[in-house]
Write a structure and sequence with these properties.
The complex is a heterodimer of chains A (about 425) and B (about 475). By secondary structure, chain A is an alpha/beta fold. Chain A is built from eight helices and 28 strands. In chain A, helix 1 runs parallel beside helix 3. The relative contact order of chain A is 0.13. In chain B, strand 11 and strand 12 form a beta hairpin. Chain B is globular, with a radius of gyration of 22 Å. Classes of the chains: A alpha/beta (about 425), B alpha+beta (about 475). Chains A and B meet through helix 4 of A and helix 8, strand 18, helix 10 and helix 13 of B. Chain B: InterPro entries: BFD-like_2Fe2S-bd_dom, BFD-like_2Fe2S-bd_dom_sf, FAD-dep_OxRdtase, FAD/NAD-bd_sf, G3P_Oxidase/Oxidoreductase.
Chain lengths: ~425, ~475
């Protein structure tokens, strides 16, 4: 069935049933599920090793909700690769998709040559990255020593490099604590964490005792306004948002954490409908994009949730990919799902009646501000269809989940549905 | 001379016929031209790389010279340099795209200024400008904010890679036998007897029969060491935003402001790497080394961007930087020959210097030849270098099945955002003038200049750079 290795005009041709772009938790899990169902699945990963971000997140807490065990990032990444291979998926590394040559056809650069992958269905699982300093418009000098958590963890865990001795971390959310752990391991003290939020986020794995061990001072309601140092970082200037006063904090390393943006370039190159909030491709409850046969999963559509949740998207999408390949599930109109401030995005952004529940029967939202009590209200065409106080708070820097059952009262022929905090 | 002698240790030469101070685009072009003759030539650069000063932070436009002040040396050299560089770019593979430009008038005053600008262009020898109405402006640049009243087209304005240009000149100077001396700051100047000049540098002394001062921001200081006070360089800081490649379809040509009483506006331009640039600001500074960016600069650019092309601001900024233009109190280039001292200064070369560099080199040969320097063209010269293509409009190694089939390293991506392969990084590290640091590697390959700024590949690129250095 698969046409591995045939060649036209110097370009190799591959014709899998499903091409999965990105070999992180969501892509590998989708690949495993689809291959286990007997389909020819080809995973394309641009890194030299598949596994995605967990490869260099050398702390525990992975695999909880998808594999029902707790493991480190690298062990989790290895296991997901093994499971995909075991199910019969092909995982091709150092394979960078550079563009589209058809509705579901891809141009790929590999060491073995240029490859055209002509698939029957495509699953986009390209993940997300942290916004770098440049995109955050932080002025000042431009010395080395300023980086994102991704680069830091690559340096420390994969390349075993030293970083500086005094770091300032921008952000105080889940990933920021992960950065603090990595810095500590590399012998670098975090002298300050800054956040524009009134509270630092915490996380089960780095809960209050964890933070006490790390001994990181957190400056809430502050922001870094300038980086100082010609050839190396010497300090950052930190502004107190309440008073406007500024102080200089000496340091030799600055880590910009969080502030996620999906790696959405392929989605945009395809001309898919995009979600202006998350900046990922717009998907429905079946994780279908606006192009038939092209699906999107993981942190590309919800930047970012934890790896296990991303992985479960992969499990969810498999059924819908199979249905699509079997010719089922014709496209009907969807109802736009919107979120009001302080929410900045909601995923999925489209509810298609009849397409089943979204992954884990949850709607995912991201908030710019914290709320201790989450009174959620769902409305459609000026009519309230549900109202509930959820037993978990709204916190910036982590996904807020709303049971999709709160949407069950929506009129399938009605207008946009809005989720808001009352 | 090997790559090490270029940067470290005692100078590999005691005396040269001509020393060119400043390894920017102008100095490198002059050294290349001189080295085509039976002369020993040294290009003397204070920094660790060629093109590491003002030349690297240029607006990267190959100018027609349509808006120069007619009758000036700058006007003449820009026009001539544009021809020379366009031809040289073809021969060496320096990426150039003839995008054309449109000056957009937003006020009646600006609209009224267009015929004068078209007439000035003719005086500068450029006859292809055309005045267009608002409708045509929006046809050419649909993403422009509402309110444009009309425009003036300059169909031959082009974008070019300033990094490859400087590097090509320096590489060819080297292959023609010139010494390229980096990390070599000129600290003092003495008379050496016999009419020679002795340059005191951080790496020892260098005697030179003739000295050409192309020291950019430091050209007035060097001029002072020769006993002159002819001009003062006031560094004019220009801050720029570079937007993500997703913005590129919005900007298919250079959008220029009309000079008016409102002050100088900013331009929006495609870049040769497939991005969009917004800027520059213009701010006179004292510190000649301060290339930091500023909050007020960013605010200014954001405000200008909102007025010019609001949709641009929805895209991510992948880089912001600041360059210092070598502005002087004079309206024209400061080119002065002192035959007695056997000394020539090429000062006050502003951002047009990228375009005029080869014409400045030609002009330099003429001046030095007239002043008595013997110029015998070498009987044979090596072929011009073929530079790696880092432009977006031309096939790059990752797209070339033929190249990858020969060498899998060109099919192995290292920097994903910019699609830079292992083969290109290896080639840069093994090139005649290898990079000294990450910035140098970036200018030769585009590695790390993309949207992720190292999130994915920063550690891997650094590893390769270190491995290259240790060889």
């Amino acid at each position: 069935m698969s046409g591995t290795g045939s060649m036209t005009e110097n370009v190799l041709l591959e014709t899998p049933d499903v091409a999965v772009i990105g070999g992180g938790p969501s892509g590998l899990t989708a690949a495993r599920e689809l291959a286990a169902g007997g389909l020819d699945v080809l995973v394309l990963d641009r890194e030299r090793q598949a596994g995605g971000i967990p490869r260099h997140s050398d702390h525990t807490g992975y695999g909880v909700r998808d594999l029902h065990r707790v493991m480190t990032g690298p062990a989790y990444a290895r296991l997901l690769v093994e499971r995909a291979l075991e199910a019969g998926a092909r995982v091709r590394t150092s394979a960078m998709v550079t563009g589209w040559s058809g509705e579901r056809a891809l141009d790929v650069t590999t060491p073995e040559g240029r490859v055209r992958v002509d698939a029957r269905a495509v699953v986009l699982a390209t993940g997300a990255r942290e916004r770098p300093r440049t995109a955050r418009l932080v002025p000042g000098d431009r010395p080395p020593g300023v980086m994102n958590t991704g680069q830091l963890q690559n340096l420390v865990h994969l390349h075993h490099r030293e970083v500086g001795t005094r770091a300032v971390i921008v952000g105080a959310e889940l990933v920021s604590w992960s950065a603090a752990l990595t810095l500590r391991e590399a012998g670098c003290r975090t002298v300050l964490m800054t956040t524009e939020q009134p509270h630092a986020e915490s996380y089960a794995a780095f809960s209050v005792p964890g933070r006490a061990v790390l001994r990181v001072p957190v400056a809430t309601r502050t922001r870094v306004v300038r980086i100082i140092g010609h050839h190396a970082v010497e300090a950052v200037e930190v502004e107190d948002l309440a008073t406007g006063t500024r102080r200089t904090v000496p340091c030799d390393t600055v880590i910009f954490t969080g502030d996620w943006i999906p790696d959405h370039e392929l989605a945009r190159a395809a001309g898919l409908d995009m979600d202006p909030g998350s900046k990922g491709p717009l998907v429905d409850n079946a994780l279908r994009t606006s192009r038939p046969g092209v699906f999107a999963v993981g942190n590309l559509i919800h930047p970012v949730d934890t790896a296990d949740i991303a992985a479960l998207d992969g499990r969810h999408v498999a059924r819908h990919v199979r249905d699509y390949l079997a010719g089922a599930l014709p496209y009907g109109p969807g109802i736009p799902l919107r979120a009001e401030a302080p929410f900045t995005w909601v995923s999925p952004g489209l509810i298609r009646p009849g397409a089943g529940t979204p992954p884990r029967e949850r709607i995912l939202l991201w908030s710019a501000e914290p709320r201790l009590v989450a009174r959620v209200e769902v409305t459609q065409d000026g009519r309230r269809i549900a109202r509930r106080t959820l037993p978990w708070p709204v916190s910036p820097g982590r996904v807020f989940r709303v049971p999709s059952s709160m949407l069950s009262g929506a009129d399938p022929h009605g207008g946009p549905i809005t989720i808001a905090l009352a | 001379m090997n790559a090490r002698q270029m940067r470290y240790g005692p100078l590999p030469v005691e005396r040269v016929d001509v020393a060119v101070i400043g390894g920017g685009v102008v100095g490198a072009a002059v050294a290349r031209a001189l080295a085509g003759h039976e002369l020993s030539v040294a290009l003397v650069e204070a920094r660790c790389d060629v093109g590491d000063g003002t030349s690297k932070a240029n607006t990267a436009i190959l100018h027609t010279g349509f808006d120069a002040t007619p009758g000036t040396l700058e006007s003449r050299l820009v026009r001539r340099g544009c021809e020379l560089l366009a031809e040289y770019a073809g021969a060496t593979g320096i990426p150039v795209e003839r995008t054309g430009a449109v000056l957009v008038a937003w006020t009646d005053e600006e609209l009224a200024a267009l015929p004068g600008l078209a007439a000035k262009a003719v005086k500068n020898g450029y006859e292809r400008c055309e005045i267009i109405g608002a409708e045509e402006v929006y046809r050419q640049v649909p993403a422009l904010a509402p309110g444009a009243l009309g425009g003036l087209t300059v169909p031959d304005e082009s974008i070019i890679c300033p990094w490859t240009t400087t590097l090509a000149f320096a590489t060819e100077a080297l292959s023609r036998g010139a010494y390229v001396l980096l990390n070599t700051r000129v600290e003092g100047v003495e008379s050496g007897g016999d009419g020679d000049t002795v340059l005191r540098t951080g790496r020892g002394t260098l005697r030179a029969g003739w000295v050409v001062n192309a020291a950019g921001l430091g050209s007035d200081v060097i001029d002072g060491l020769f006993g002159h006070r002819r001009f003062t360089v006031t560094p004019r800081r220009g801050e720029l935003f570079v937007f993500d490649k997703q913005a590129r379809p919005m900007v298919n040509r250079i959008v220029l402001p009309v000079p008016s009483s409102r002050g100088k506006g900013v331009l929006v331009s495609p870049t040769i790497y497939g991005n969009v640039m917004l800027g520059p600001t213009a701010e006179d500074r004292d510190d000649r080394t301060d290339t930091s960016t500023s909050e007020h600069g960013f605010d200014f650019l954001l405000e200008k961007g909102r007025k010019l092309m609001p949709a641009l601001l929805d895209e991510e900024v992948t880089a912001s930087y600041a360059g210092l233009r070598a502005a002087t109190e004079h309206g024209d280039y400061q080119v002065h020959l002192d035959a007695g001292q056997r000394y020539l200064v090429l000062g006050g070369i502003r951002s047009t210097g990228l375009t005029s560099a080869m014409a400045l080199a030609e002009h330099t040969l003429g001046l030095l030849g007239d002043a008595g320097l013997r110029l015998d063209a070498k009987a044979t010269l090596p072929d011009p270098p073929r530079m790696p293509n880092i432009g977006e409009a031309f096939p790059r190694p990752y797209q070339r099945a033929d190249l990858i089939a020969e060498d899998p390293a060109y099919g192995t991506a290292v920097c994903f955002c910019e699609r830079v392969t292992e083969g290109e990084i290896r080639d840069a590290l093994a090139s005649p003038i290898p990079p000294a640091d990450v910035d140098g590697l970036r200018r030769r390959t585009r590695a790390l200049m993309g949207r992720c700024q190292g999130f994915f590949c920063g550690a891997e690129v650094e590893k390769r750079l270190r491995a290259g250095e240790s060889q």
